[in-house]
């Protein structure tokens, strides 16, 4: 009988621990006043491209300087949230891939996406993104980092299509 009591007690503690883990993973840390804790980066949402062009005094979306500033801001947000909130970093990196597909910073953005997935311990998805990285950036600057994180290596030049 004593073993049954211990077993039920252990299962109860395990269930409470899992519940706290899952709940803590989904919620942002808050102070008692409801404001975010100091030191956690707050994500600043970027305006959609259509709204940015409609604002008077703002350059059009096809202005290269404005697009570069917008992408730089997105990259800074990805880097700032990489450790504290890797889910946000993943979301921002995917948004950047969609909005700026042929950007000069695509190499860094895709490497940051692999890092964000690794920080979430989603290793299978990180390996898929590593293959995407090496397919689209065969001589990328961050290839060594991506290989280190995922153990995926680029194909030799003679075997690429």
Structure overview:
This protein has 161 residues and is mainly alpha-helical. The protein folds into two domains: 1-40; 43-159, no CATH class. The chain has seven helices and no strands. Helix 3 (64-81) runs antiparallel to helix 4 and helix 5 packs antiparallel against helix 6. The longest helix has 25 residues, at 2-26. It is elongated.
Q: Supply the number of helical segments.
A: 7
The domain tally reads 2
* Tally of DSSP β-strands: 0
What's the mean pLDDT score?
Answer: 78
How large a portion of the residues is in β-strands, by DSSP E?
under 5%
Order of helices and strands: HHHHHHH
Identify the overall geometry.
elongated
As a whole number of angstroms, the C-alpha radius of gyration is 21 Å
Low-confidence segments: 27-34, 49-58
What's the helical proportion of residues?
A: 55-70%
The rounded distance between the terminal residues' Cα atoms is 67 Å
Major sheet description: none
The class by helix and strand makeup works out as mainly alpha
Task: Itemize the secondary structure elements and their pairings.
Blueprint: H1 2-26, H2 49-54, H3 64-81, H4 86-99, H5 106-119, H6 123-136, H7 143-150
Helix pairs in contact: 3-4, 4-5, 5-6, 5-7, 6-7
Structure summary:
With 161 residues, the chain is mainly alpha-helical.
Index terms:
7 helices, 161 residues, mainly alpha, single chain, 2 domains, elongated
